[in-house]
Fold these 2 entries.
Entry 1:
Amino acid sequence: MYQSSYLNKLFEDVKKKYSSEPEFISAVEEFFDSMDYMVDDEPNIEKYAILERILIPERVISFRVAWVDDKGKVQVNKGWRVQFNSAIGPYKGGIRFDSSVNLSILKFLAFEQTFKNSLTGLPLGGGKGGADFTPRGRSDEEIMRFCQAYVSELFRHIGPDTDVPAGDFGVGAREIGYMYGMYKKLSNDFVGTFTGKGISYGGSLGRKEATGYGLLYFVSEMLKTFHNDTLKGKRVIISGSGKVGKHAAVKAHALGAKVVAMSDINGFVYDENGLDVPLIDKLSEPKGEYSLEYMKIYPEAKFVPTPKLMWGMPCDIALPCATQNEIDLEDAKKLKANGCYMLVEGANMPTAVEAIRFCNENGILFAPGKASNAGGVAVSGLEMSQNAMHLSWTYEEVDQKLEQIMKNIFRKCHETAQKYGQPKNLALGANIAGFIKVYDAMLQEGVI
Ligand code: GLU
């Protein structure tokens, strides 16, 4: 129950209307927890139906993706692009390829992306896309054919000032390359439009590391502000075998932290003295998996074949970097019992709403992905700027800008949380600060 009767009514409506979209409902619930602190003091929100409008994507494109596999069999997948909100800039957000992808997941991701992109301070609206296709186990040729088929529909809906897709789960440099190649051929334009591109054809230095490195810049700000401390010697645990977790580990290690546990799809590895992060970085290169190989080289480390059990290991800082809903209430309780005092999201919504509430009530400092993992999309924004100016910045320039953006995001979240009398509630700060810019633009742009 919210304090605001307006929010209660809206949330009842959301639950009824979108009963088959549990991930979207969770994202709205988490957002409304914060809106409850301000909505009744801002009569224009209800008067101009800002929340009613913000909850409905401006456009959802749903399409068939037909392609031929290596055996000559015709395969058919479902593809989507959710163009959620363009109040402050062109739609911007990644593309996810995984058998679990559905409209509910893409709507929750695009909804979150709207506020995340707003927090970066760059002119980026919110969007997300994907398909129920898993690249894992597919040949390179199959992946190329799939990407080409996906873009042969998507290309007509995107553009450098309309909608700029990027990578997400299941979509890395290889997939972006195949999609951008086909996009360029069909549109007969070389104007960017995708981010996360290879460096040889318009990509930005520092983009592939950006989400993970940005996450650690954010963690450093949290430690400095709330504990007058640094990462030196802190025990960190990190989930996920994708780009985010790996680069987060590399940066944590570089900043002096002890990365004691990391998980991939096969399980997790643990070493109380700290894992060999440069080795994990190397082993994870082709496929993201490393744990089994790691155990061959360090048989004295501990290996547990269930990734989720990692949340029961002792640590100071937990960085969930895999996917949504990895940490439930029980996991949050285990983290607390084992000494964890900071939970900072590298993935999008890896923490269930009840677990977030538990953190806030039990002294675990929590930071939501829409703030702490915004480094990826922020450098995507920098890639768009470089493309528009037809020039490239050095790695150092991009990294410096990334660090500054992450510091600014932290400051905005913290100041907003302080303004509402909840200085440690960064979720509140992120939601309200992200929302205010979108709200302000929607008010000025009229009822559309
Ligand atoms: N998928 C990433 C995210 O969740 C990056 C999006 C982008 O670069 O557009 O923020």
Entry 2:
Amino acid sequence: MTDQPTVRIAHLYAHFLNIYGDRGNILSLSQRARWRGIGVQVEAIGVGQEIDPERFDLYFIGGGQDKQQLVIAEDLLRHARSLQAAVDCGAVVLAICGGYQLLGHYYKPHNGPELKGVSLIDAYTVAGDRRMIGNVIVRRPDGSTLVGFENHSGRTYLGPALEPLGRVVSGNGNNGEDGLEGAVSGTIYGTYLHGSLLPKNPHLTDELLAKALRRRHPDIVLAPLDDSLELAAHKRALSLPA
Ligand code: GLN
């Protein structure tokens, strides 16, 4: 019986919601774990499959166009209670753009019916009349920055008690109106930042990885890595025009 710590990642709808290379977030989480000698198990969870809320430490759901969201929204709704149970047991959720929109109460696209979300976060999204496309810089409450790329028409509005991931320094963020980007509720993270997000934001990758690992390895501490390459990419992205 190995005592090597492992992280178990569920990649929800890997083949449907993977726009703008969002699977790069899985690669970043996995590699930063392996570089530390931590075992990694990634399982793709597709439409029609079941989720064991005890099994996974981190759930990832990427972004997609309205038509992909339409395909998976009903199936995701089946998992609402399992995902809430998993979060209640300390699992981490990272949702990007279209996946983020479905974490809230609903997403109303331009055309077609309102898509009911899983209500893991107190937020809702309505498609606006213009697409918000471009580079984004976000400043988090601890003063750190996040960089990424956005491409969405959805405007997401947070409930009064829901914290944003950070404030927009450049770009649009949740809705292009209130200066907020993303949402954080305990171990649940939602954001519009594609890129993919994590490779250029190693501090956020490690924040998510540490929280996910502590679910089954409470005393684990992540050894520092040489982030010179990642931080050089982060610094370059800080200089890009919105
Ligand atoms: N279809 C959604 C929108 O346009 C999400 C897009 C995405 O995931 N990039 O807002």
